[in-house]
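DM from R.C. (forwarded with permission)

"hey, sorry to bug you on a friday — could you get me a structure for this? deadline for the figure draft is monday and I only need the backbone to look sensible"
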Amino acid sequence: MGEGAENTGTTGATGTARTTGAPPAPGGAGHADGAEEEERVGRDRDRRIGRRTLLIGGAAAAVGTAVLARGELGHLWWRLPGVEKPRVAGAVDFRGAQWVAASSANWRRADRPDDYGIDRVVIHVTQGSYRSAVKVFQDPAHGAAAHYIVRKDGHITQMIRELDVAFHAGNREYNERSVGIEHEGFVERASSFTDAMYAASARLTAAVCGRYGIPVDRAHIIGHVEVPGTDHTDPGRYWDWDRYIRLVRQAHTAAEPTRTAGA
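My reply, with the result:
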């Protein structure tokens, strides 16, 4: 990535050419091979200052010849000393998840939901194994990663903090406003989606919805295929949305007394 630019990134299953016919052999997640890397064309301007150095609280603001837009500064206030939320190495947002850090090239530092409100969960399928998904999300050349990966056995790995913007949806606005959850498997293999996976993912999504006040419905819990401007098809026809939303609602309801008591 060049300075001042952001690859919006796309994780999960690609468009028609990627998912028709026989499913690909395991070992590559999302856009893992060279041909698929060429499909990652979604780039947009990053609102970070880049070369223009802003010295807040100092004697000067060096901005070159450009004028900083009010909207740009509005998303930078948290960079003031003492304002940014503390970050603990290895800490996770979902209890029981394993922390494995994604490459910093595959996400953007932020302070959500204070700078960008979170009102969506985006469901992805890796088109590969859990191991290969972790590998490509740690690869700085990949240009994409999701916040979480859910394995077939229900194990949850967090690779990007919910505070930060993951390049997972292929759409800058949706990246900024959503949490991305990958699921190990293939869109054309119904056997990919196990009971353990559904149950663990539903608990995770319920926790995210509870944390940010996201309604538990299909307007706010969406598939990658529903993100505007993408050519992806995941989670695909075998993902049981009725079952999944029912499980998320059950988990969300079960957690409500805990949230109320702790308020």
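R.C.: lifesaver. Helices lie at 16-19, 34-37, 70-74, 130-137, 172-177, 195-212, 241-261.
me: no worries. The beta strands are 5-7, 43-45, 98-99, 107-108, 120-123, 148-150, 156-158, 165-166, 178-183, 221-223.
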